[in-house]
């Protein structure tokens, strides 16, 4: 009794395994019987893959690497800045690092920087056009706009003033920005231990990748320099105006001393009151000289501070023609096209057989 109970599941397992093997053989024979269809579809898929690889334009990538200089105020300059601050002048030596690290990478990908770059002038086929126009021509958008009165006369001139743009201009620039930020523009710090940032611009036009990469780096560098050194530049301009004003007053006081001395030449010693204007002019000369000396010192310190903060982005490697390109290879197209078509054909044949059995 016990032996029969033990043998039953074994027999059941053997039957199930036999049925499974039988089913596999049946499916194999069925697919083999359809080999002509599978082969024909596979060849068609390979041809389609080959055609795609021939039509697909290569992707050109322009790479620019740069280092961010985030130099803090050194001890040597700190004493000079302290002396200037004692006279109530802030030379801006304590500039912050609001664009350091990840903040700077986001600045490169910001819509404002990208759109300003798109309005930069470039030489394209012997004509000076904006990068936005170059992008539109490369993607053949203007052909679709010929029959649309809203877009037909839209032109992006180099260095156009953004405030005169219409909603249509904004919409087009927005679409270009979305396309570039999603698939073409990449800015990243490849190694957190190394303060070198790499920017990649990819497109199917070699010149656009090169021009856009260089123009974006220049645009961000100018904005970064102007923003971070703005305070030091303003202080330097104020000091320069004060120096010019005091120097003018000093020159006037020196001239006044000379005139007063001429008026008192061979003056009777008993008439000392007439020497008062000359004495007052002498005091003005001494006071203006002292003020001018301090202002000149502070002005020179401001220039040193501005020079110190100006070189903020140091380019290490710039893109050079010819750019590296990535093609969709012919062999890759044949293999992928053939495999996908064969896979889909086998799947459809299997579904059809299952439906017939049901």
UniProtKB/TrEMBL annotation:
Q: Where in the cell is it found?
A: Cell membrane
Where is it mainly found?
membrane
Q: Which residues cross the membrane?
A: 37-55, 333-351
This protein's record includes keyword Signal: no
Which part of the chain is the Polysaccharide chain length determinant N-terminal domain? 29-117
What membrane topology does the annotation report for this chain?
Multi-pass membrane protein
**Highest taxon of the lineage:** Bacteria
Q: Does the keyword Transmembrane helix apply?
A: yes
Please provide the record's keywords in A-Z order: Cell membrane, Membrane, Transmembrane, Transmembrane helix
> Which Pfam families does the record cross-reference, listed alphabetically?
Wzz
* Record-given protein name: Wzz/FepE/Etk N-terminal domain-containing protein
Q: Which organism is it from?
A: Flavobacterium quisquiliarum
């Amino acid at each position: 009794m016990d032996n029969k109970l033990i043998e039953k599941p074994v027999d059941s397992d053997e039957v199930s395994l036999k049925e499974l093997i039988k089913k596999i053989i049946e499916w194999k024979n069925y697919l083999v019987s359809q080999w002509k269809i599978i082969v024909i579809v596979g060849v068609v898929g390979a041809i389609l893959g080959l055609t795609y690889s021939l039509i697909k334009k290569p992707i050109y990538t322009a790479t620019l690497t740069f280092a961010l200089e985030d130099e803090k105020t050194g001890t040597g300059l700190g004493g000079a800045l302290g002396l200037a601050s004692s006279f109530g002048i802030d030379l801006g030596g304590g500039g912050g690092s609001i664009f350091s690290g990840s903040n700077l990478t986001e600045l490169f990908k910001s819509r404002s920087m990208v759109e300003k770059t798109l309005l930069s002038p470039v030489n394209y086929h012997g004509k000076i056009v904006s990068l936005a126009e170059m992008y539109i021509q490369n993607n053949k958008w203007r052909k679709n706009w010929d029959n649309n009165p809203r877009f037909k006369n839209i032109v992006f001139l180099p260095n156009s003033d953004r405030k005169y743009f219409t909603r249509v201009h904004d919409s087009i620039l927005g679409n270009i920005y979305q396309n570039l930020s999603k698939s073409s523009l990449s800015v990243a710090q490849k190694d957190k231990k190394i303060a070198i940032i790499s920017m990649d611009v990819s497109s199917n036009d070699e010149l656009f990748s090169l021009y856009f990469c260089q123009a974006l780096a220049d645009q961000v560098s100018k904005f970064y320099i102007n923003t971070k050194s703005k305070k030091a530049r303003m202080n330097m301009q104020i000091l320069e105006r004060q120096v010019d004003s005091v120097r003018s007053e000093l020159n006037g006081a020196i001239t006044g001393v000379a005139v007063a001395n001429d008026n008192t030449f061979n003056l009777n010693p008993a008439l000392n009151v007439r020497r008062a204007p000359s004495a007052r002019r002498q005091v003005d000369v001494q006071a203006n000289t002292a003020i001018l000396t301090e202002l000149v010192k502070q002005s020179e310190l401001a220039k040193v501070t501005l020079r110190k903060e100006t070189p903020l982005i140091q380019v290490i490697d710039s893109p050079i023609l010819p750019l590296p390109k990535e093609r969709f290879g012919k062999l890759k197209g044949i293999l992928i096209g053939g495999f996908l078509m064969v896979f889909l054909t086998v799947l459809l044949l299997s579904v059809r057989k299952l439906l017939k059995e049901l």
